[in-house]
Structures are given as C-alpha cells and as structure tokens.
Amino acid sequence: MRVYESDKIRNIAILGHSGSGKSNLMEAVHYTVKLTNRISKPTDEAKLTSSMNLHSLEWNDHKYNFLDTPGYFDFDGEVVSAMAAASGTIIVVDGTTDLQVGTDKALEITDEYQTPRFIFVNKIDSEKSDYDKILDQLRERYGKKIAPFHVPWGKAEAFKGFINVVDMFAREYNGKECVTVDMPTDMDDIIAPVREMLMESVAESDEALMEKYFAGEEFTTEEIHKGLRKGVLEGDIIPVLCGSTAKNIGVHTLLDMIWDYLPSPLDEKDIKESDVFAGQIFKTIVDPFVGKISFVKIHEGHLKPESELYNVKKGHKERIPKVFTLVNGEYKEMSEARAGDIVAFTKLQDSSTGETLSSKSGHDSYDDLVFPKPQMLVAVEPTNKGDEEKISSGLQRLMEEDPSFTWERNAETKQTVLGVQGEIHVNSLKDKLKDKFGVEVKLLDLKVPYRETIKGKSDVQGKHKKQSGGHGQYGDVKIRFSPSSEPFEFAEEIFGGSVPKSYIPAVEKGLKESMEKGILAGFPVTNIKAVLYDGSYHDVDSSEMAFKLAANMAFKKGMEEAKPVLLEPVMKLKIVVPEEFMGDIMGDINKKRGKVLGMEPFKGTKQIIIAEAPQSETFKYAIDLKAMTQGKGYFEMEFERYDEVPSQLAQKIIEERKNEEH
Q: Which end of the chain offers a freer environment for a tag, N or C, measured as fewer CB atoms within 10 Å?
C-alpha cells in the first residue's frame, strides 16, 4: 500500500447491535474494493466477534482504516480502543426491527465522545424492513439533526442535479426501489418530504444558509455539500443511509460519503504534521506465532522502518524494524506512515495499550484509555493438575490484549479470580486460553471471603504446661477480649512481672497467628481487642513458644465466651438504568438482602441507584441486571465493609464449611 498524506486518510469505527451486519458490511466493503470475491449470506453461520478488527483499504486514491467492533456489551473494552483511534463512526442499524439496545449504546458512546457519525440502516431489502419507522425513532431522539439521504430509487432521476449523493444512489440501485412504499402519483409529493428534511438540516449548520432558507432561496450544490460537511463534523447533522450489506446495496455511496463528510485526521485537534513523531498504542493483540502486535494511532509527524522510539511513560527505548498496515487479514509492510494513520508494530519489548511512543523522550503522554470496570467475578482452575503456571502466564498475556478484565490469585480462598464484563466475556477468555496457550480451564463459583469476630466480652486464662523429662514447657496468660473498630488491637497491663516483658511479644504473635483461623468455620478473625493483664511463668520451663501456645489456648476460650459471629463482605453498587426499570431494580436489591441508599438523575432518561448488598449476592449481578433491563443497565461495584451474617444463614455457611473440610 502506498504512502498517504494525512488529508487523504479516514479512520472510521463501526458500531452497532450484535447481528445488525457490521462484519457483513466489512465483507461488502472488501468486495466493493475488489479485495474479495464473495459476501456472506445472512443465513451463513456468523462467528462471534470478541475483538476489534482493523481493516485498511484504498478507495478512489484515499486510505480508509476501518475499526470493526464487537456488538456484545461484554466486549465494550474493544469499543474503547476503537474510539481512541477513530475520528468518525458508522452505526449499523437493523432495518427489520425497532432501534435495539446496542444501537442505543452506540448512540450514547458517540454522544459522549462527540464523534461525527453516519447511521447505516441495513437489511433494507427485507420485506420486514421499515426505514421510515427507524427514521421516526431517530427523530424522536435527535430531532432535526437526523438527515435522511434516501429517496425512492425508482424515481431518483427526478433528483438529477439536486445533490451528488442522489446521483450515486441512482447509479448504484439501477432503478430498484430501496423500500416498499405506496408511490404518490404527484412527483412533488415524493420530492418534498425528503428534500425538506435534508435542507432543514443543512440550513441549521450555518446562519447565512439559514437566512437563505427562510428567504425561500435555493441552495447551490456547493452550499449543500459545505453545509452538510460542517454540520456532520460539528455533530449538528447525522446523515442516515440505507442499504443491504448482503447484496452490496448502498456500499459505494457509503464509501463516497465517508470521504465527503466524515473528518480527515487534520480535522482532529491533536493530529499535526511535525518533525517529531508521536503516537499512542490503542490496541494490543497476542498472537501465539507472531508474538505481541501493537496498533498505534499516529498523532504527530511521520515514521519509517528501522526507527527508534521512546516509551514516554516508562522511559525506555523501543526499536521499530518494520511498519505494517493490515489489509484483508494480512500484515503489509509500509515504507512510511504519516500523521493520522493507523499502523501496527510487532514485538515491542515493554509497551502496553494506552502508552505513548515518541521520537522525543520528553514528549507529553496522551490521555489514558479508560476501560470499563469488571461487572462479574468468577473463579477458574485448570482441568489438568499442574497447569496453574500456564493459567497465570496465559491470563497475564491476555490482559495485555484485553484491559477490560482483571485477575488475581486470592491468597485467602486459594482461587484464581477473574473480573469480567459478563458470561460471554469469560467464555471468550476461556476459549482463548485453550486456543492460544493450550490450557483448558473450568469455571467455578467464587468462594466468599467471610470473617469471624465477637460481639461480647470475655476474660479467660490460657495455661500451657507440659512435663517431659528434662526441661518442661510452661506459659500462663490471662487475657480480656472485646470488640474493636480496628482489625486487631493488643495491649498489656502487666504489673509486678507476672509475665516477663521478653515474653509479651510472643503472646501478641500467638494471638495474631490464632486469628488466621476462627472457631466457627475456620475463617480469619477481625475486629477484636486483646488485653494481657496477668499470668505466671517458670524460671526454667518458660519460653517464647510456651507463651505462644498459651495465647492460642486463651484465644479459643475467649472467642467461645464472647459471642462469636460470622461476617460477610458488603459491596457498594452504583447502578445506571433507564427510568422504566427503577421499580424492578429496587425490588431485586431487596431480594438480595440489600438496601437502596439513594438515587439521582443521569443523562436525562436514566437514573443512578446507589445501593449496598452482600458480596455473595452480587457475583452474577451483571447477568441479572442485563435480564431485567433488556441489556440497558450497567453498574460499578466496590468493597464497602463487613457486616454480620443473619444467624440462620450463618449456620448453613458453617455447616457447608465443615463438610468441605471433611
């Protein structure tokens, strides 16, 4: 692929609901530019897309970098990566149904990023399609920003000279109608609705055009083009096209309109031509054969192979022997790449997603990419014993590829715990561990890190005395136990040397070791205060070990007599849902032994619910929330505190724990 100047490049993210035809659109684009000779049929079995894919191609002496994103919410991290590199978006909509939740999410994302966008209404060849209904639903949300670039194609000749887009449509559709409509007999009845909606959008992009519009004057083709582009770039106009990816209808028009109306890199504020190279890694792929592949958006300057760059954050150098672009799944070498382009590097030594690379060591870092927090926790273990190291290595490498999940080895529960976005996400990671790293894992329910404490007070003696020929063992302590707001408090009130000061640290150490395993179910003990106030010793038989054992005996007695109870972790939840689901969500929180703490409005039609619930009830809350809100709700969760487990439930947990140990 030849070198393209910045103004000849377009970087486009493809968003939309799963099944709307995003991947099929990319097939149609590849077919249109003659990179393939086939487009899959809608009936062909579709493969689940779990990663963002880069497709670079040439169209009419321009370079397009398409970033195709997964439609499932479990892979929102891939959308974050794509939006970091894209300057424009195409939202693919299924024309045979109402606006879907994935479409709504895509619209929210482009609202948030303030990204210029097109909406491509797909499957328009289907008898079930209803383009006008989609337009109405979009108009309800965005009003006059919605600009339909659609006419009944059988009558397109009537629009010759009106706007170049219409000419493209007429050429492409060969006189076929895009949708089934009752055709009016009067041509003005056909022209008026479409032209009026489009012209209103153009007029609102510029004051001078608005005056001309109200004066009843006709716009020139140049004014229409200029007004449309300005309106699209500023977010005041959202063009809506229709077509069929499976039949390659509307794709030529879409490609032409991308060039005409979506931003070039030079329209972005942080893209500039410079003598200094700077770029950001926005996506990493772990390939078991090639190694690590890093996708980089060039923000400044240009780059040639055999360059040396600095990782601005970490300070080390990275050698770039080759610069690649990705064409139809194949990595093609480039002789040079300019500002605004998207390129791939292989085998970077120590540079990760979000980090900045520059030819200047002191260059500023670009903003970090903010990935969604985990929505669900699940444990994994190897199917084959001895594969623990393989799991750790594989997960660490997959985290480079997918920063939207976390993992840790929980020292307390002895489980490998993944923080994921949902069921589909964790199953995708499971498949990748097998396919890329040859390790099979099974999913397990998470073990709750319960705690034990006391509600009352006790005053006990722990006396360890053992005689066994020669020196014996002797340690004697009297300790008061009580609840504490601190994890552990230790104090001593020894008078007259009843316990020598040299043995007091051994008493404290003995108590700390005893707290690792409580008396109810063997869970760690917390929030207790122990005061050593008396005891006795033997000049010959006393030792540090004897006093540690005495402290252990006192601990067990003290716990038993001070009303021991089981504690469970309580999580704080921040739940974002549309208003119509508020009642269901609050009712469900109550069922989960939780409570709602407050509510506040969010982005007009949504509400944020602040709540608390026991951790044991929230491990799979992501699944429940999606089911209750048709996929429109999401949440964040963090540890808040430990609370007492209700007695009936506590007894069940204690019995289960004892059964596990036997």
A: C
